[in-house]
Amino acid sequence: MPCVGGHFMCMVLIWTVPSEFIANAGWDAKLVNESYRWVERRVAFHPPLRQWQLAVRNSLLEIGIQPYNGYTLDHLYGTKVGGTIFDGYGRRHSSADLLYYANPNGLTVFLHGPVQKILFTTEGKIKPTANGVIFSDANGLNHWAYLRKGSTNEVIVCSGALGSPQLLMLSGLGPEKHLEAHNISVVLNMPLVGQGMSDNPMNAVFVPSPRPVEVSLIEVVGITHNGIYIEGASGANFASQTNTKDFGLLSPKIGQLATSPPKQRTPEALNRAIEAMRFLPRSAFVGGFILEKIMGPLSRGHLELRSTNPNDNPAVTFNYFKDPGDLEKCVEGIRIIERVIESRSFSRFRYNHLPVSSLLNMTANSPVNLLPKHANASRSLEQFCRDTVTTIWHYHGGCQVGQVVDHDYRVIGVDSLRVIDGSTFDYSPGTNPQATVMMLGRYMGVKMLHERIANN
After folding, report:
1. Contact (Cβ atoms closer than 8 angstroms) between residue 130 and residue 416
2. Dihedral-angle region of residue 430 (phi above 0 means left; psi in -120 to 50 means alpha; beta otherwise)
3. Are 201 and 321 in contact (CB under 8 A)?
4. Which helix (DSSP H) or strand (DSSP E) does residue 338 occupy?
5. Per-residue pLDDT tens for 151-160?
6. Active site residue: 394, 396, 407, 450, which one?
7. CA 169 to CA 178: how far, in whole Å?
8. What is the pTM of this model?
9. Calpha distance 68→65 (Å, rounded)
10. Burial class (CB within 10 angstroms; exposed 0-12, middle 13-18, buried 19+) of 272
11. 173-174 and 188-189 as β-strands: parallel, antiparallel, unpaired?
12. How far apart are CA 384 and CA 361, in angstroms?
């Protein structure tokens, strides 16, 4: 049973999802909770809160994002401390740690073996049936791997919101005209592959600090009832002693290109943003960010192939803030951030002579993304949201349940093929989808095992 997937090591917190997400997905709540605990035993740890994160926590409580739920991995409204993938020794953990549970006698893992194409057969079949994959090795040589005979053997795609719809298209499953434009033989016309792409917009306000702050990623979150999450990150590494200057996760060179139209995501544009950041004063890198992510989102986009080379990134348009409801939530989130910054609990980490409007203006003029800037960004929160939007890498969609896959994650219209990853989500669950994606792997693994036992 080939499992086609990739792996991304995230550095922030993991959380479970609201109960309504589980209900809407049609999942078995008991098995979901068991699977979350299964994941958490290997990759979730209690972060030690230091000065910046403590100030964020106290400020959220001061402005009324109540109650305080303490340290918990559950999705609860109010203010909480979530889990981190860094253990007490500073070692980062990931989904690779879940191999601890595996039976090594029944598992082969290929590193540097990206899949180029899913293979199908129609011989003696009512509909196209996946029967193997083509993958390449580190030397660029292609290899063919076929399923063993048996009705329960399947190809499982876990390549993520960008990789899974791309791989389906490269294999002949997708919008017919788009595939033909790339001279790809159409196995099945599936117009909804690559549609419904979404990314949760993130907006942040940089707060320069009069005192040094610790390096911290997102450890505290304020979860509001209207779908806005308030978080904070800080770091002395913003002002490192090297010649490199960046804002960590809010820097263009580590991927803040998603908010620009695909044709504008060029190496030249990226170099211009990096060069602009290099000329900022060193004081602009001492402090941290208070950021907000909105739930959903409502805005939708699409994914298309650039070429037939699976190593080429696809062209993705997320249409940030196309739906006015997303923009309204962003504005409301920025207003909450303003209250956090102005709170008594946060006063040690801001300059009294810098009003929030100056911080907005400073943030809007920083090259955190490749979008054009507008002079009124600090006066219009709507313009500030549009100008400073960045990705938080919570991409989802492209192979949604009910459109591309069924509720058992089988690709509709073909046999022996499933997609099990974030591309099947209609919206990003919780404050961070990382735990839910790992949970889903275990959840579906248990269900498929039960199916096999029943069939045998």
Report:
1. yes
2. left
3. yes
4. helix 324-342
5. 889 999 999 9
6. 394
7. 9
8. 0.89
9. 8
10. middle
11. parallel
12. 9
